[in-house]
Every structure is written in C-alpha cells, then in structure tokens.
Amino acid sequence: MFEAIVFYAFAAVLITAGLAVITARNPVHAAMFLVLSFFTASAIWLLLRAEFLAITLLLVYVGAVMVLFLFVVMMLDINIERMREGFWKNLPLAIVVGGIMMAEMAAVLWGRTFGVAPTPVPRAADYSNTRELGRLLYTDYAYAFEIAAVVLLVAIIAAIALTLRGRKDRRSQDPAEQVKARPAERVRLVSMPVEKDQ
After folding, report:
1. What is the model's pLDDT at position 13?
2. Residue 169: how many CB atoms within 10 A of its CB?
3. Domain 1-80 belongs to what topology?
4. Which of 9, 41, 87, 89 has its CA 20 to 30 A from that of 141?
C-alpha cells in the first residue's frame, strides 16, 4: 500500500513537470522542469527495482544531456516570440498525436488491469537486472544500441556547430604559424647603458 502511494505521488509530480516543460515560456525554466521529470522518473525506476536504469537516467540525462542542452539554450540567444508564432497552427496535430498516445496508454493499463495477468517468471537467487540488461543490450539489441550512440554523437557535433560562431572580436590561435616561429624572432636583446647612482 505504501509503495502504491509513493508511486502515485511520483507519477503526479512527473506529469506536472512534463506539462510544465511544454508550457513554460522560458526555455531555461523548461529545462529545469525536464530535470525534475528525470529525477521523478528515476525514482519510479527505483520503485520498480531497476536501480541501474535509475542511476543511468540521472548520470546520462541530468548529468550530461541537460547540461549540454542548457549550454546550447543559453548561447544561442533564442527569440522566444518567434518560436511561439507557429504554436496555434500546430496545436490540432499535437492534440491528435497526444490523443493517440493517451489511447495507447489506456489500452495498456486496461489490458493489465482487466486482461489476463502475466505469469511471473521464476528468478534465480543470484539474479541481477544489471547483468540481464547488459546481456540484452550487447546481444539482441546491439545494432540499436550502436545506432543510439551514433545519434548522440551527431547531436553533440550539431550542438557544437550551432554554438561555434565566427566573431570579429574573437582572438584565435593558428598552431601552424606558432610552429614556424624561431627563437631569434621571439627574443630581442637590447643593449642599454649602465646608470650610475649619483
């Protein structure tokens, strides 16, 4: 009973944070609400006894992806009003997609509640969900795992390309020119007369 109460509490926070992500006017605030939703989703993973997935969600998304996202948002100087111009135009499509997703979730919950109960799988005494997840990732889902890694690499490169701007007042170094320099060009000995104290 206590576990169900905690689950519904975290689920309520997760839904509220998810709604705040898409309704926040400031992109930095939206990113902070997304961090909150990641934390609550990680807590739900812990309730499901998937500790490895919970820690991975915190380390990868909160620790890396969200930091990268915040850097991109802060450095791009996004025009919020221009982004919101097409909001009402895309609203009908968003409602249709959201309705389809809610219908799918309702069908899953309906089948789990009123359908045939799944038969529990017997687990060995030394069962580890981390080891089982690793076995599935690197055997059955190896190609999908590699494709996800490539997608993340492309996202990192795109973020760097978006934030790397050519500015006129920026000073840059040219390693090729620095290697060509000789010691005689860098140091100049000046002969000065010795001054005597009066």
Report:
1. 92
2. 4
3. Four Helix Bundle (Hemerythrin (Met), subunit A) (1.20.120)
4. 41
